[in-house]
């Protein structure tokens, strides 16, 4: 029989799993019909109350551990708080103040969840919980797909099929593209956390899910993710300096961007693909134009899309007539639009500091047998955050409320601010 203490510990672990899974779309999938039906507004109340319950539990657990927030305040932690606070105070100049205040508040609550999670469990346990959440979501999605459950299917507006000629799989996630991205995160975590048969079985399942999602972006990110993981591991093995790592991280995507700008249209035409990337390049041009209208502070967090200005502008682009554009399909441009050049520069500065510290921590633990459990945790976080720098050029994966990619960044940032991790003076 479980003691009260063990039951409470089990409850906290399940809560963490459910919260993480919900940022990947679990609650939305279960409580909001897809494709959304006429009664979606009626069901959405249960969706909102479910999230409210998760937020209240987060605050409750933080009250039980006040030191989780009150200690370890260093310059990096303060910078992350400044980013969150900037998103909140941006309601003062936002085009939609209510929207901004609401979603920025949710972003802050997600940050608090990450603070609690990292201070509640050692880093190895945190990464294991994240891996289990992805694994359970992917495994259940594949099983339901095989059983023929329509709720996990993706209804492509263009009628496109997967490479296998099947209907795309969205799974229990919020979209097939982000589902594929999260499966890649699971793949990278599996590469580090599992051994032998477990690694082969897990990686195979994540790869199959990516293919069944029917997203060419997901399949491409899987290949890129494996390359990134292998390159970082090799760099650590040969003891490349931090400066070389940062230089490569900066040069590779910049080279890819320049190549796309100079020869992207010709390359896509040769591959038989839409030169606009199904309208993405048009969205990027729109986003840059709008961002330059409020270049310093932006339009406010989540304060532009949904406004009359955005709706009217969308109608001037033939591809977006009668289409509710949710975002610009580029995380860099999205932050530029919402928080201006100030928010974008602050976010990127914090992001690269987190990457740099993860690389340092990985290099310190890579050759220390007593610290190998930490190395197995740092490496997939480092590879995943590096992959996000690439995926964010065509997916909106930075600094989003109730978004798993943002949660992964917050977790990584809080991890490297913890004194015992930052100094790496001992290992669990």
What is the secondary structure topology, with strand pairs?
Elements lengths: L3 H20 L2 H6 L8 H25 L2 H4 L4 H15 L7 H24 L2 H24 L29 H18 L2 H17 L3 H22 L4 H29 L9 H12 L16 H7 L16 H35 L6 H20 L12 H14 L1 H5 L5
Protein name: O-antigen ligase family protein
InterPro entries: O-antigen_ligase-rel_domated (IPR007016), WaaL-like (IPR051533)
GO molecular function: ligase activity
Task: Describe the 3D structure.
This protein is an all-alpha fold. Helix content is 69%, strand content 0%. The longest helix has 35 residues, at 331-365. The chain is globular and about 60 Å long. This is O-antigen ligase family protein. One of its GO terms (molecular function) is ligase activity. It is found in: Membrane.
